[in-house]
Amino acid sequence: MTPRTDSERVLSVPADQTRWETFAPRYARLQAAELTPEAVPAWLAEWSALDAELMGVSAKLATLADLHTDDAAVQARYATFLEEVVPQTTRADHALTEKLLAVPGYVPAPDFALNYRRFRDAAALFREANVELGVEHEAQMNRHGVITGNQKVSFRGETLTVPRVGQHLDSPDRAEREEARRALDASRLEIAPELDALMLSLIRTRRQLARNADLGNYRDYAWKRLDRVDYTPEDCLAFHAAVRGEVVPLAGRMMADIASRLGLDSVRPWDYNRNNLLDPGGREALKPFRTGAELETLAQTALGELDPELGGRFRAMRGSLLDLESRPGKMTHAYCQYFPVTNEPFVLMNVVGTAEDVRVLFHEVGHAFHGFLSGDAQPLVWNRWSPIEFIEIPSMAMEFLTLDHLGHVFPPEELARYREKQLQGVVAFLPWAAQMDAFQHWLYAEAEGDITVADLDAKWLELDRTFHPFVNWEGLDEGARAKGWQYYHIFRTPFYYIEYAMCYLAAVGVWRSFQADPARALEDYKASLRLGSTVPVPELYRAAGVEFRFDREYIRGLMAFLEEQLGTSA
């Protein structure tokens, strides 16, 4: 494909890099090497460089596929890579892992000890039957991006992208919000049958992955695959209960106050956007920029004021490592990708000019800083980034750390509104995160037999009534509400969601420390990112100046802090 933009030139992949024959001789050389304890470090460095190349190729092909969900050639190229290269590299990596584990007398260096243990656990989980099934699983998950990336919404005589219509949910005009909500729901229901069928096939595949690994259910399989060793499923269930007890009531009080100040009889579905709660003064939604270029400029100023090093990192991304504008044929989600050979992150977004876009950019750029700093500090590719229980702290903390550096973006009154919405967002997010996690625990560990679409819809409705009882659906068709489970993470990153809640709680803690000692908190933040994946999760949290906790007492204390801060903002 001929590159169409500067960012696509960064994403270009030579044809030979998509063929197994290019990499096979290097794997064979590593496999044939005589390996002694003394030879392991150099051998690991060579293997790491090879893995980094393949990770980068996969990341670039995947990103291109998300940028062009409507381009059959782009989709086919990535699918071919998944089918022909990934199974071979999976087997080759497993063989090298077994070779490493068999070296007599080898003791890993302290900065590799954690990943050595992960290698051992991954080897125990490996099954040949799951190699090809894993490819099928990847293809199924990628299908979600094609379906949703080509989703269109009919609104006021135009055919628009989901983000373009979504911005009308922030309107102070209740009729406009309702019109936009109904248009989005109609669009979602149009693609729902395809996503229903896809989900049922994913459930079958995931159950088979677990059976092949001699495990009783997919939750047990995911727990091992995600290396969750610092907490248990029971801890997650306790978190759900804590959110019900400590956060849902606060969210209800918050929304009741907003509704009262706006003169609303109740909070209807079009009155509740957890990403951007209604302004209690009935003012127009904040619109701090118009184009992606303007967003880059305002972010550059804020990050430069916050920290010259981080500002410089963002400057290096501008031009080719950011793809921010919303457009047809582009996946509607936002994420940060990473290319390990060049130690470059890549941010994909769908901006439309809202204050929420500002927050999301700082979030994704926080991920980018994690990639930059861990890549600088950690030569081995497996030691970069971090365990998933920490990986959202760099992003979520950046949402807070930039709050005091946006005076050039918002006048004082608007900045107070933006700050208030950021704090409200934590309260609104936690019930959603608990609902998402609870749904997956039910789906993969509790639900038995042949699950039907009706079962999925019914469970989601049950959970939504539990975690969002303050939204009034009386007299409304709940068809679209029942499809709330048709969300990116349910399809593309199973069991990855409670980490957002863990990290949001920690990010509030980082911000609280930042208020007391900005220089120290910022240095702790950057130091924790440089540790990458070389220390356990609790140590990473301590390095960032917070605790690895998500129990009821801890949540109660943080909610009291947020309520106090919201009172200050009001």
From TrEMBL:
Cofactor: Zn(2+)
Keyword match Protease: yes
Residue span(s) of domain Peptidase M3A/M3B catalytic: 169-558
Entry keywords, A to Z: Hydrolase, Metal-binding, Metalloprotease, Protease, Zinc
Cofactor note: Binds 1 zinc ion.
UniProt keyword annotation of Plastid present: no
Family: Belongs to the peptidase M3 family.
Protein name: Oligoendopeptidase F
Originating organism: Deinococcus aetherius
